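During the reporting period the student researcher (J.K.) took over the structure-prediction task from the postdoctoral fellow and processed the backlog of single-chain submissions. One of the processed entries is reproduced below for the supervisory committee.
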Amino acid sequence: MSIVTAAIAIILSAFAMTLIVGVRYLISSGAFALATRAVRPGLYAGLDAQIGREIAWSLASAAIYGIPAGVVAWGWQNRGWTRIYADPHAFPLWYLPLSVLLYLAAHDSWFYWTHRWMHRPVPFRLAHAVHHASRPPTAWAAMAFHPVEALTGAIVIPALVFVIPIHIGALAFVLGIMTLMGVTNHMGWEIFPRFLWRGPLGGWLITASHHQRHHAEYRCNYGLYFRFWDRLCGTDRGVGGFADGESRGGVVAGRAAARGGAGRQPGHQPPSRQS
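J.K. obtained the following structure tokens:
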């Protein structure tokens, strides 16, 4: 394969992955936005302009996520660059769930520390304020990132496939969890049953009621999937970003808290230097 042919193939692969990421975002966020309209009618009332911005930023982020993914996908298929494998017997079957946990733990760790860094004054004003402009966040805000922030998230999985072996099906499962948690953590109400997020398991898993508190208070609850780093580093303030998340009154109260706070907009609320 000539250099020109390879370059064209890589560009096409990157374009295809960008399209896949963008369509996946529109379908998943759109589905949960429709569910919100049915289950919590009026929750997103008056947020049309904000939702428009969330969609625009998210579609821009789709390209930033799609390009490295497309390059890696081409390299896997044509050059064997990665440690992605298709034969389920290449590793013991018990390794399949272990690989999923390894990827989620590594992604969660990267997200916690980069997210916490994003709350330093300069990177917050430069990039992360875009995401926090969603007050309150909606199901459309899952990928509403400034390009700098999107880049920090886009490199994680493509980097991991060079280091940690994973079956292609397990990788698809990881990406599915990534999409599900990204959307549901921002939708403004709890989709999961109370026993999960209020029970012992909820003490270690992040759902909407945990992440909503981050959007309301800024200097806590930085994790993505697990509460391990938040609890270890003393940044976990628990659930309750919108009261119990189960009543209409609780959701509305949470929206008011997220919008109001001290009466400052997110771009004018610099995080502490300890964040």
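The committee noted the following: Strands lie at 84-85, 166-167, 241-244.
J.K. will present the remaining backlog at the next meeting.
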